[in-house]
Amino acid sequence: MPDTTRFDERMTQRLRNIIVQFQHIEGAMLPLLHEIQSAFGYVPREAEPEIALALNLTRAEVHGVISFYHDYRREPAGRHVLKLCRAEACQSMGSEAQAKAVLDHLGLNWGETSADGRITIEAVYCLGLCATAPSALFDDQPIGRINASRLVALAEAAA
Amino acid sequence: MDIFVPQDMAAVAVGANQVADAIIAEARRRNIMVRVIRNGSRGMFWLEPLVEIATPAGRVGYADVRAEDVPSLFDAGFAEGKPCGNHLGLVENIPYFAKQTRFVFKRAGLIDPLSLDDYRAHGGWRGLENALSAGPSAIVAAVKASGLRGRGGAGFPTGIKWETVARAEAAQKYIVCNADEGDSGTFADRLIMEADPFALIEGMVIAGIGVGATRGYIYLRSEYPFAITMMNRAIALARTAGMLGSSINGSHHAFELEVRVGAGAYVCGEETALLDSLEGKRGQVRAKPPLPAIKGLFGQPTVINNTISLASVPFILAEGASAFADVGYGRSRGTMPVQLAGNIRHGGLFEAAFGLTLGALVDEIGGGTQTGRPVRAVQAGGPLGAYFPPSMFDTPYDYEAFAKCDGLIGHGGLVVFDDSVDMARMARFAMAFCAHESCGKCTPCRIGAVRGVETFDKLLAGIDVSQNLALIEDLCETMKFGSLCALGGFTPYPVLSAMRHFPEDFVPAPLRHAAE
Ligand SMILES: Cc1cc2nc3c(=O)[nH]c(=O)nc-3n(C[C@H](O)[C@H](O)[C@H](O)COP(=O)(O)O)c2cc1C
Ligand code: SF4
Ligand code: FES
């Protein structure tokens, strides 16, 4: 597992800079959380009281929002994220068998990160690529008509 | 020389970027002047990467182009549109394309999605210009007369929704585009946003003028990174062109528009959950009434429509309501972008008037399965839609006809399965998906779906099969009638249709093995 990064003074400052940018827009919460996740790779627990203060909410409310959405990570992911689609159209083209082969090869379960911190495998439910299924997203790169050996090669080539 | 290589996410997923780079490099090496235009996709995804060459006779296509084949294609005269590689001839003569009625997707794949000149040259902004001169009440009247029904799933008449918002008094009203497109087997919203983003902007601006709303949001799912980039760029361009901002096309109407990115919750496609999510809350479903049209975003009157509903509006205002209403079937007017997905040979988007049969769509247009095995089941309308067996392929594609057989048109997706599918597993998946995505507000859905999964697990293990089947039937009844929204309320449809039409997959495990 990757270290849960220690939250130092510099990171707190970075967090506050993001919060002030978003705090006054209509419905600030989701854009703010997305920005925090894109800056830190996850939404640190340390962010909760800061957001609560800025948006005039309780810490529990902020926590409730973060935990509701599948996108927000509570700890850093690997250096690369491979999302494999598990929805029906991909299943019709054998996605589950391909996914199992990838997971078995890497010795991981859904949502887990490799010991060297290189890759996290996550499930996704439809990428809108259902006519060239099964589908995957490797970081920001979409991949259609996936097969396990190609994905394993991609995962292993990644630094 | 213009060469078109789609930048659509599905085309890129099968190598379109590498093909574009290879074409540019090869042309440079040969000293041939070419302009590579990154169009959107035509929606014929099984042909991607589909490269098109502009010739004096029209646009000639090449299917399934690979980067490594580009040099030999140039040798064979590909840059002049000569027959070589997977030459398709004129793209618009491909039967799959020629058979369509492209009202909403007429520019998709044809133009550079971010070219304002292309957009105008192909009929863009004409609907908005007509709307500005006709005025708000005529806009709402035209949408009503077109017979347009919401393309997001529920099929509610769009014009009636707009009329309610137009009549409501408020200092601030909103137009919200539902671009959450969570249904497996659907990609129409993604395609229009990536291929013709100004059409959605134009539709939303017309909606704003029609009902007196000056702010709009596009709630766009995070799984669509290409569409997010495209819409943001298109909004910035439309603003510079005076089509967004404080004076729309020089008029006294103002409209501001912004993209908001979702966070991976299927239930946020439900309109009231979406509004809560936009407000920055957990995406939980609200009890209705009040309707969003009366008390919507931040408590203000709000039009919330699907992407395709809104993108249909420019056509209606440009060509007239009757041009839209004249095609269709029964009370389903206009065209529907049917999305052929899953295990299908010709997977892609097929825009046609309502009324084709399910069988015509799957077998004739879709070409049957990609694996070449017999079609066994088709799930229509996403994860909350029923499974149809081929014996029901004579059902016409129409809201009422589908409803009559406990089915759903939904957002227009059709997911095809061959005879290797295990329908008991698919039924279990429907329950598991509901459990995974439940917003937690009501017990039948939150608890029922979890019980459903547990019961299926016993059943699949061969334990007390008939009792557990009866239990699932009961559970489905409870979910159908006790759920606040269609996530819990419609999950029974895929489950029960699988049990009803494919009973042989639900017999005890030892018997199933014996039958094989
Ligand atoms: C669980 C659930 C998910 C939904 N997902 C979507 C969606 O992704 N996109 C959409 O347009 N409508 C979706 N809907 C339907 C919306 O609630 C609503 O009917 C629609 O946005 C209204 O727009 P329309 O009239 O233009 O279709 C969903 C409904 C439910 C119950
Ligand atoms: S049916 Fe499910 S998703 Fe819908 S309101 Fe109830 S708990 Fe939420
Ligand atoms: S179901 Fe996998 S991409 Fe749509």
Q: What does the model show?
A:
The complex is a heterodimer of chains A (159) and B (516). Chain A contains seven helices and four strands, in the order H-H-H-H-E-H-H-E-E-E-H. Chain A is of the alpha+beta class. Chain A has two domains: 60 residues; 78 residues, Glutaredoxin, CATH 3.40.30. A four-stranded mixed beta sheet of chain A has the order 2-1-3-4, covered by helices on one side. Chain B has 516 residues and is α/β, with parallel strands linked by helices. Chain B is globular, with a radius of gyration of 24 Å. Classes of the chains: A alpha+beta (159), B alpha/beta (516).
Provide a concise account of the structure shown.
Chain A is α+β, with helices and mostly antiparallel strands.
| Biggest sheet features of chain A | 4 strands, mixed
How many DSSP E strands of chain B? Answer: 16
Number of helices of chain B: 22
- Major sheet of chain B: size, sense and barrel closure? 5 strands, mixed
CATH class of the largest domain in chain A: Alpha Beta
Integer-rounded radius of gyration of chain A? 18 Å
The arrangement of helices and strands of chain A along the chain is HHHHEHHEEEH
CATH fold naming of the largest domain in chain A = Glutaredoxin
Question: What number is the mean pLDDT of chain A?
Answer: 93
Mean pLDDT of chain B: 96
* Spatial strand arrangement across the major sheet of chain A: 2-1-3-4
CA-based shape of chain B: globular
Whole-angstrom Rg of chain B:
24 Å
Largest interface: A-B, 41 and 60 residues
Percent range for helical residues of chain B? 40-55%
Number of domains of chain B: 4
Structure classification of chain B: alpha/beta
Tell me the CATH architecture of the largest domain in chain A. Answer: 3-Layer(aba) Sandwich
Q: Give the domain tally of chain A.
A: 2
SS-based structural class of chain A?
alpha+beta
